[in-house]
Amino acid sequence: MKKDTSLFSLDRRRLGKMRKKLEEINALKAEMAALTDDALSRKTLEFKERLANGATIDDLLVEAFAVVREVDKRILGMFPFDVQVLGGIVLHQGNIAEMKTGEGKTLTATMPLYLNALEEKGAFLITNSEYLAIRDATEMRKVYEFLQLSVGIGVFDDPNRKVEVEEKRAIYHSDIIYTTNSALGFDYLIDNLATSSDKKYMRPFHYAIIDEADAVLLDMAQTPLVISGAPRVQPNLYAVSDEFVLSLEEETDYYLDRERKEVYLKKKGINEAKRYFSQKGLYTKGNKELVRHLNLALKAHTLFENGKDYVIHDEEVKLLDKGNGRILSGTKLQGGIHQAIEEKEKVKVTPEMRSMASITYQNLFLMFDTLAGMTGTGKTAEDELIETFNMEVVRIPTNKPVIRQDFPDRIYTTLPEKINATIQFVKQIHTTGQPILLVTGSVRMSELFSEILLLEGLPHSLLNAQSAAREAQMIAEAGQMNSITVATNMAGRGTDIKLGQGVKALGGLAVIGTERMASQRMDLQLRGRSGRQGEPGFSQFFVSFEDDLIMESGSKWAHRYFKKHKDARDDAIPKELKGYRYRRLFKKAQETSDAKGQSSRSNTLEFDESVKIQRELIYQERDNIIYNRNKDFNADFIVKKVIADFVTNEEISRDNVTRFILDNMTYGFTGFPNQLSFKEKEAVHQFLNELAQEILDKKRLYLTKDFVDLERNSVLKAIDECWVEEVDYLQQLRTVAVARQTAQRNPIYEYHQEAYQSFLTMKEDIYKLTFRHLLLSEVTYTKKNELQIYFV
Ligand code: ADP
Ligand code: MG
């Protein structure tokens, strides 16, 4: 039996301190067991009183954990193991508990969630799939409800269900909320589009535990969440660009570097384009849009692959989650690339939407006072997690020693060799009846393996993005005797694979990986599907020089080696490569790939910095207005300021002033008094102020106490109109900056400069627009006596 020697010494020291707490918690076992149900459930009230009298939740940890443990036992029939209590303490401290698959993280979370919910500011459990959120909430809620806490679930079985504000508010004001990262992110953005306090539903973020933390915090965090609004108006050059690109050839017409995701037209390609579009020059001002579309079409054809990056589903291009191969619903690539792919696939090209609001997951989660996480695989990414989220990764020992065997990779030169070797191996294992989980890196590969198995007459189930709904159920059955399950790399993550009758004696679950994944963490996740809770099992990967990992992140010699040897290979007789040099190649390639992921995430974050600062200011300002906290934004102040700015900055002439009045103040302007001279700035200034006051006074008289509603709505509308423009502009600016970046420059600094300038402009625009809304809008009352404001 292999002993778990993986505990890092730092973790051991940390755990040492926690063990003292654990002992204290263990010492309360008998006392808690002796309490009646009533007395046990009344503990919540007692704890809250103590908090009110000055105790801290840290003071309550020992007792609260002991209480939840006892309730877990009474209600769910599961008494948290010592290692789960240790995990719970790590979660309370705002760190990441690394606990292997099957160790019971769902139950572990009940203790810190309860403790932190006692503060009555809300405690979240955030995971990466609706299925898991609903499943775990449904199972665990009985515990919290026994303890008189309320539970909300932020996602729904039916994703199209319309949820009213009241319902959302009830969910987000529950003591404990189970939800997904994307539901939380979208709800946050939508909450900040509300135009009055009765449309807002969120509370400030207090405490959250993120389940499958590395998937949520790292793998899903590469692209920001974006809410899209009105379509962008622009020429439709997608079709012609697509047609043109189809006529080009790699190397002669364009340069392609798959590894660095770079592609651009070479001289010959540019000349072709000039001829094709009958243009003298291509990189001229008037051809900006054409060049953009050509680049998009090139990218769509060379850097995005059907079945790997996206699938066509219901006649639409749907993106695939790199981590688990599932369809990312509601997400589109930004900056026109999605449309270019639609054109390439000849499905309907959707309008390119402007982004109205956006946030990165990193910045979303950083808003929590305390953020914690749990996952089976976090240690290898600890540096990044500390740097970005200030969370350490504490490895919790397993409840029982792990006896799974992880065999060294079997390495082949070509893809067909590898596939043949894999299938031979599958057949051999299958004759014994041992269940097999065959894992691929893409939907396309899972389909390919499924077809081959079918030809070989091997019954199996196929699990990929197309069958997301049944995923969990199917994967749960992957441990039955004789079963073969083909799945994309992290399909069904978070679902336990229990071994069927007699499988233990056969050696448990066999995990066979058909390629090493883009990150070491993903490989570890896969291996961990087998051998949970001290069960037997093994994992074995098959790899080749043709794998994406090597193609995209492998050393140069590997590419040369492949070119030289590929034709000499006989696919039917796979030849295994052995030796340190090959093993090291795959290890290195994976490290390179991991580093790329990390740098792309830090890039995303760096770009978001400007948006973040602006977003925080704008959201704060909106809230101040919604909750009437801002003295500056009243009608008189704004009117005076905008008029003063106009008089100072613009040329004062009869024409200009007339236009200013008609555009911004009133349509009913009848003319200037005779004695007004446009040479006297002060006189014009005074005249404009008086005119504005007159208009405002009329509205005040008519609206009486509702005048504040006009003020509020005018400002909010102005802010939103300008902010939508700004978000969209920053998004575009970002796309441009990223493109510049690949040309060996660091344009992030320039980006922040430009972003700041446009923020200053936006602020002025908000004042001007508010002014216009205040004066030029029309106000009436409906029959039901509700205020109606018409903005022009
Ligand atoms: P993880 O999320 O760590 O992979 P789960 O939370 O899905 O694991 O739990 C795996 C299984 O272990 C579940 O079937 C759960 O009911 C069971 N389990 C967890 N903790 C305990 C416990 N203390 N006693 C008995 N069974 C437990
Ligand atoms: Mg889990």
Automatic annotation (TrEMBL):
Domain Helicase C-terminal: 418-581
Family matches, as Pfam families: P-loop_SecA (PF21090), SecA_DEAD (PF07517), SecA_PP_bind (PF01043), SecA_SW (PF07516)
Domain of life: Bacteria
Swiss-Prot/TrEMBL GO biological process terms: intracellular protein transmembrane transport; protein import; protein targeting; protein transport by the Sec complex
EC annotation from Swiss-Prot or TrEMBL: 7.4.2.8
Residue intervals of the SecA family profile domain: 1-574
Reactions mediated catalytically: ATP + H2O + cellular proteinSide 1 = ADP + phosphate + cellular proteinSide 2
Membrane-protein topology: Peripheral membrane protein
Keyword Nuclease included in the entry's annotation: no
Principal subcellular localisation of the protein: membrane
Residues that hold ATP according to the record: Q84, G102, E103, G104, K105, T106, D496
Top EC category: translocase
Sample GO molecular function, one term: ATP binding
Helicase ATP-binding domain mapped to chain residues: 86-249
Quaternary structure and partners: Monomer and homodimer. Part of the essential Sec protein translocation apparatus which comprises SecA, SecYEG and auxiliary proteins SecDF. Other proteins may also be involved.
Assigned protein family: Belongs to the SecA family.
Role noted for this protein: Part of the Sec protein translocase complex. Interacts with the SecYEG preprotein conducting channel. Has a central role in coupling the hydrolysis of ATP to the transfer of proteins into and across the cell membrane, serving as an ATP-driven molecular motor driving the stepwise translocation of polypeptide chains across the membrane.
Protein name: Protein translocase subunit SecA
Native source species: Streptococcus urinalis 2285-97
